[in-house]
Automatic annotation (TrEMBL):
This is Anchored repeat ABC transporter, substrate-binding protein. It is found in: Cell envelope. Its main location: other. Keywords: Metal-binding, Signal, Transport. Pfam families: ZnuA. Belongs to the bacterial solute-binding protein 9 family. Coiled coil: none annotated. It comes from the Bacteria.
Amino acid sequence: MRGHPRRTITTAALFATSTLLSGCSGLEAGSPDAELTVSTTTAVIADLVEQVGGDRVDVTSIVPHHGDPHSYEPSPGDAARVTGADIVFSNGLLLEEPGIMKMVHTNARKSAPKIEIAEKLEEYGGTVMKLEEDLGLDVLWLGWAVEGEVAGDGSQVRTTATELEGPGELRVYLTDTLGKPKVYIDSADGLDDADSFTLPPEAHTHVNWAFSEPGTYRLTVGGQTETLDGKTAEIGSGTFTFTVGDATEAPDGTRALDGGHADVALNAETGKVYVRADDDKSGEPARLPADDVVLDVPDRAKAEVPKEAPYSFLGAAGDDVWVLPQAVIGKHVHGDMDPHAWADVANAGAYVRRIEAELIKADPEGKATYEKNAAAYLKTLGALDEEVARKLATVPEHNRKLITTHDAFGYLAKAYGMEIAGFVVPVPNQEPSAAEVEELGVTIREKKVPSVFLEPNLATRADVLRRVAEDEGVGICTIYGDSFDDEVDDYVSMMRHNASELAKCLGEDAR
């Protein structure tokens, strides 16, 4: 729970929330006489801007309804709309797919403020919390990370594989939300500048690491910064050692990592390359010199090359391949802080206060309008906060566990006394084994959850969770995280739906 007494709701507040207007979608154009043209990255932010701006703003969202800000690829039309914007609002904290932010910084006018709202949320009365990730994989969950700041809006860091020593081939690739692979590194045809990818500063991404033969591999990588005007600068290189297969031993004096969460990391400020791994004792990331660590890929990571044609780059269908999976389907670049702050209604109030302040800076003549609209909507959010708290207070303590398809509900859980029991997604391009399906069933039984929750825009990811839930006889319910749809198209409606659905699907009689 939040660090203040459990919220209560009065009859007056109940009446107030029952009569709230739902607001506009945030995707349609506003008044033709608007004083400001505003572009936002998500429909959630677009709705909040409309609530504050009213008729003085014309708002469009880059990510449409049903879209996923973690993976949406902007179109030329999106770029054109950003070009005409007087101000651009994004969430920040690396919520948005990097291509979205690069498009914003490339196309928006230099004079147009580019506001990443959540980056200063605490200054406006909000709270920001660390992103917790734990999928319980039985092999090392190895990502790729960039640490350190880089000067210049929209600057990125490119990491390139320059050399590989080993008995077989290495492929590093990402499986998108439709199950299609995008290859970043493939040693089969030699390594060159194409064996690379970019990340924004202070970002982490999930990828698959696939090795064709058992044995010891040494991968050398180098990094460079890239600015929007095309300038580059080399920032360092380093070599990482992998042991593949149970018969392969780690060199003396090294520490083997064979489980938990770790990243191959490059520091853009110092030029150092290292392994960033979770520390079991402190919970904080430890930075381990690359020469002191071996990344273990045991025989339990062995799989078969899928028969689907898009995976033929891994070898012939049915061939053995040792894979450290990316675990979360889709492009999922993020930082250390959880960006989904609006899931706590009190934080939505901080979003509104930041939006109010920035609109006044951009349009001082509209100050009275923005202050009036913001004050009215903050009252709406205060009543909504109490309504959500009241509904979720009806959920019995033993049912306050969330299993979802996406790690987007940590703020909701913390604010309203829930527990994240897990977010369950399939391992990319691998059909789960009977044992894995059984383990998921055991988790649902042990947690005694009456229902699991799917997000409408991510439902196609959740076939395994859906099947197991049906087999276990638990409910399958809907919750909204990053996106609206045709039925729920504003923030107030989204949070009301989530509260009602959670109360219904986790209630005493839910099963």
